[in-house]
């Protein structure tokens, strides 16, 4: 309703969750087909990745995200919020391997609403927080792809905007090796 009553400064940004190979594309399609509730375009709902450790993933699934822990293991370029990415490669940077080499990502449903868009190299973290917590925005879209040639990041400041839909467990494949049996 808010977006319909005041469409100023509302822009739609396509989220790029394309996969690099056929196996990954099949997995993404299977996950999308498995989830019977469609994404809500009216609130800018999307699937995004969140990289973390096994312990943190377990805690998030059991009791939700906690904003108060934001930035405890990574930076806060865009403020103290929950950082998500459309790129699994970007989210992988924040994972930590277990002893057996397994890493963990969360595939989350996120409601981005009206995004505060930044494509600058530097950002004012407090201004990002203020724009979302006291302004008319619901999330930050940090376009590091445009600013630095890396990846786009999506930040929300309310735990209720993100639902950890799936836990993905995987291992990095070393060049020239085959994956272990059963993985």
Structure description:
- Helices cover 25% and strands 25% of the residues.
- It contains 6 helices and 7 strands.
- The longest helix is centred in the first third of the chain and has 13 residues, at 22-34.
Offer a few descriptive terms.
25% helix, single chain, alpha+beta, 183 residues
The H-and-E topology, N to C, reads as HHEHEHEEHEHEE
Counted by DSSP, the helix tally is 6
> What structural class do helix, strand and pairing data support?
alpha+beta
Average pLDDT value? 83
- How many DSSP-defined strands? 7
Uncertain parts: none
SSE layout and pairing:
Layout: H1 2-5, H2 22-34, E1 45-52, H3 54-63, E2 82-85, H4 88-92, E3 102-111, E4 115-118, H5 125-133, E5 139-143, H6 144-148, E6 152-156, E7 162-171
Parallel strand pairs: 4-5
Antiparallel strand pairs: 1-3, 2-6, 3-7, 5-6
Would you summarize the structure shown here?
The chain has helices at residues 2-5, 22-34, 54-63, 88-92, 125-133, 144-148; strands at 45-52, 82-85, 102-111, 115-118, 139-143, 152-156, 162-171. The protein is α+β, with helices and mostly antiparallel strands and 183 residues long.
């Amino acid at each position: 309703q808010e977006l319909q009553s005041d469409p100023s400064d509302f822009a739609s940004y396509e989220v790029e969750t394309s996969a690099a190979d056929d196996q990954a594309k099949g997995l993404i399609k299977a996950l999308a087909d498995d989830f019977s509730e469609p994404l809500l375009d009216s609130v800018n709902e999307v699937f995004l990745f969140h990289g973390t450790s096994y312990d943190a993933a377990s805690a998030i699934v059991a009791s939700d995200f906690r904003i108060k822990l934001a930035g405890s293991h990574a930076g806060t370029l865009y403020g103290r919020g929950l950082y998500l990415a459309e790129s699994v490669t970007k989210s992988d940077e924040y994972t930590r391997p277990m002893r057996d080499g397994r890493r963990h990502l969360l595939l989350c449903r996120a409601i981005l609403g009206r995004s505060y868009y930044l494509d600058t190299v530097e950002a004012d973290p407090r201004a990002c927080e203020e724009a979302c917590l006291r302004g008319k925005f619901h999330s930050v879209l940090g376009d590091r792809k445009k600013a630095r040639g890396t990846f786009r990041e999506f930040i929300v400041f309310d735990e209720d905007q993100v639902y950890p839909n799936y836990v993905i467990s995987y291992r990095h494949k070393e060049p020239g090796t085959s994956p272990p049996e059963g993985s």
